[in-house]
Amino acid sequence: MDAGNQTCVLEFLLLGLSEDPELQPLLFGLFLSMYLVSVLGNLLIIMAVGSDPHIHTPMYFFLSHLSFSDICFNSTIVPKMLVNIQTANKAITYGGCITQMYFYLVFLYLDHFLLTVMAYDRFVAICHPLHYMIMMNPHLCCLLALVSLSLSVLIALLYSLMVLHLSFCTHTEIPHFFCELTEVLQSSCSDALSNYIVLFSVTGLLGIPPLTGVLYSYSRIISSILKMSSVEGRYKAFSTCGSHLTVISLLYGSGIGVYLGSAFSPSSSKGAVASVMYTVVIPMLNPFIYSLRNRDMQGALRKFVSRSFFPS
C-alpha cells in the first residue's frame, strides 16, 4: 500500500471494554468515579507536600512528581473514554489518536523512571542514612526528575514518529478503550516490523536496567533492615519503603501481565480489561497506598485540609 493511502484515515474506532448497551451507564459511572478519586487524591498529595516544610525531602519531592504524572496519565485516557461512552460515539481522529498515544507513553515512562529513582532514594536513606542528605541533595533530585522527563519525552516521540510513517486502512477498529501502541501497530496495513524491533529494543534497553536496579536496591534494603537490632527501627524502615514496594509490584506486575498476555493470547478484549489495572486503578490507589501507613503524609494532609477548610 502506498503512502498516499495513509491520508484516507480520518479516524479510528475505539471499541472500548464492552459493546453491550446495558453496561455503558455502569462503565461510565465506574470510570468517572475512579477518575475523580484519582485526580482528587493525587492533587491532595501534591498540595500537602508543597504546603508542609517538614516533608520537603527527596522522598516526597519525587512522590509529588509521581502524583502529577498520574494525574496527567489518567487525564490522557479516561476523559476521552467517558465522552465516547456518553455519546455512544467510538470515533477518535487520526491526529487525536497519535496525540493520545504520545502523551500516554510520556507519562507511562515517566512513572516508570520516577519509581526507579524513588527506589534509589530509599536505598540511600536506609543503607547510607548518615550521607542521605548529602547524596540526595536538591541539585541531584532536580537533575534526576529532569532526566526522567526528558527520556520519557524522547521515547514517546520516537514511537509516535515511527507510527506516523505507517499506512492504515479505512474503518480501522482498535479493540481497546484508548490508542494503545501495540494495538495501533497491529491495526496498520503496512509492515510494522521495524516498529516492533524498535519497541522491543528500547523496552529492553530502558526497561531491564531500571528493573534490575530496583531489585538490587531492595535486596540491599531488606538485607540492611534484617541486620537492625531494634524492632522499632525495622518497622520504621519497612514503613518508609513498603508503600513504594507495593506500587512497584502492582505496576510491574500488571504491565508484564498485560504484555505477556497479549503476546500469548489472541484475545485483545482481555488485554483491554487487564490494562484498566495500570491505567486507571493504580493511579487511583497510589494516594491511599502512600498515605495509609505514612504518619508524615497523614500529618501533612491533616494540616492542609485544616488550613484549607477550617482556617479558624
Secondary structure class reads mainly alpha
Instruction: State the CATH architecture.
Output: Up-down Bundle
Q: Could you list the spans in which at least 5 consecutive residues all have pLDDT below 50?
A: 1-7
Number of domains: 1
Rough shape? globular
Q: Order of strands in the sheet with the most strands?
A: 2-1-3
CATH topology description: Rhopdopsin 7-helix transmembrane proteins
CATH C-level name: Mainly Alpha
Can you give the helix content as a percent range? over 70%
Percent in strands: under 5%
- Determine the N-to-C terminus distance: 69 Å
* Largest sheet composition: 3 strands, mixed
Q: Assign the CATH superfamily.
A: Rhodopsin 7-helix transmembrane proteins
Q: Please count the beta strands (DSSP E, at least 2 residues each).
A: 3
Number of helices: 10
Radius of gyration: 21 Å
Task: Sketch the topology as an H/E string, one letter per element.
Answer: EHHEHHHEHHHHH
Keywords: G-protein coupled receptor, Membrane, Olfaction, Receptor, Sensory transduction, Transducer, Transmembrane, Transmembrane helix
Domain G-protein coupled receptors family 1 profile: 41-290
Function: Putative odorant or sperm cell receptor.
Subcellular location: Membrane
How would you characterize the overall build of this protein?
GO terms for molecular function: G protein-coupled receptor activity; olfactory receptor activity. It comes from Sus scrofa. Pfam families: 7tm_4. The chain has 312 residues and is mostly helical. It has one domain (3-309): Up-down Bundle (Rhopdopsin 7-helix transmembrane proteins), CATH 1.20.1070. 76% of the residues lie in helices and 3% in strands. The protein contains 10 helices and 3 strands, in the order βααβαααβααααα. Strands 2-1-3 form a 3-stranded mixed beta sheet. The longest helix has 34 residues, at 94-127. The radius of gyration is 21 Å and the shape is globular. It starts with 10 loop residues before the first strand and ends with a helix. 35% of the residues are buried.
